[in-house]
Amino acid sequence: xxxxxxxxxxxxxxxxxxxxxxxxxxxxxxxxxxxxxxxxxxxxxxxxxxxxxxxxxxxxxxxxxxxxxxxxxxxxxxxxxxxxxxxxxxxxxxxxxxxxxxxxxxxxxxxxxxxxxxxxxxxxxxxxxxxxxxxxxxxxxxxxxxxxxxxxxxxxxxxxxxxxxxxxxxxxxxxxxxxxxxxxxxxxxxxxxxxxxxxxxxxxxxxxxxxxxxxxxxxxxxxxxxxxxxxxxxxxxxxxxxxxxxxxxxxxxxxxxxxxxxxxxxxxxxxxxxxxxxxxxxxxxxxxxxxxxxxxxxxxxxxxxxxxxxxxxxxxxxxxxxxxxxxxxxxxxxxxxxxxxxxxxxxxxxxxxxxxxxxxxxxxxxxxxxxxxxxxxxxxxxxxxxx
Length: 387
Known about the structure:
This protein is mainly alpha-helical.
C-alpha cells in the first residue's frame, strides 16, 4: 500500500511538472495570459480546484510582491502536492522561459544582435487576447456574485484607466467590500487581511547605494531585492533595473537594458526572466543562474508564508468579503491590461479574424489553448513571409 501511495504521489508530481513545463514554454502574453491558461488547465480541464478557490489564490497573489503568474503556479503546486509540489510547479514554470532567454542571451553575446521574432508574435498576440477574454468571462461569472461586487469591479476599471496604482485599487476593493460586512453586528469578529509588505525592503536598500564593482553576490542581492519589493508591470521593473544597473553602477548600457527588457517581453513565461538575460550578459552562465535565482526566490518565500492563510481568511466573513473585493478588483485590472494589449495585438484584418476564430473555437470546441498558440505562431510566420 505504501508503495502504491508513493507511486501515486510520483505520478501526481510528474503531471504537475509536465503541465507547468508546457505552460512555461507556451506562455506568451504576460501574467494575464498565463493566468488564463492556468484557469483553463486547472479548473476547466483537470478540475484540480474550483473556480472559487482559483480566484482566492489569484487575489492572494495580487497582494504580495513579485511575478503574479509565477506565484499562481507556486500556489497551485502547494495546493496539489504540498511543499514539494510548491517547488516543482514553480521551478517547472520558470525553467522553460529561462532556458529560452538563455539561448537569446548566448546569441546576443556571441553575435551582438537578437533574432527576429516579429512574425511569431504577430500571430500569437491575437490568440492570447481571445484566451484571456475567455478566462475573464469564466472567472467573472464566479467572482461577481452580486451587484455590489459588480460596482466595485467597474470602479476598479475606471481607476485603472485613470492611472491609479494597482495595489491601491486591489486594497481599496478589498477594504470597501470587507467593511460592508461590518454593518451587521454579527460580522464584527474575525477581522483579518491578506496585506503583505516586504520585510526585505529596508534590509536590502544598502545594496543599491554603495556597491559598484560587479560580483555574483551583489548581483544576487540586487535581483533578490527587486523580486522582494516589486509591485506593478514590466515598466516598473524597467525603472528598477535602469536606476541601479545603468545609472548608479554602470554595469549595463541603455541599449543593453532595452535589449534585455525586449527579450523578456517577446519570450514566453514570466517577464522576470529578463534577469536571466542580464545575468548572462554580465557574468555568463553563473551570472544567469544567480540572477534568476535571486529574482524568483522571494516569490517562493512569500507564497510559502501566505498560502496557508488563504483558507483561514475565506472562513472569516469579514476577511472573506475582503478577498471577494480583491478578486473583483483583480479581474478589473486584467480587463484593463487586456484592452491595452489588444490595441497593439489586433490592428488589421488578419489579426481581427485570428482573434475572432480563436474566441469562437475556445467557446464552442474547448480546444486546448496550446494548439491555438502554436497555430497562431505558424500563421504569423507565414503571413510575415508573404509580405
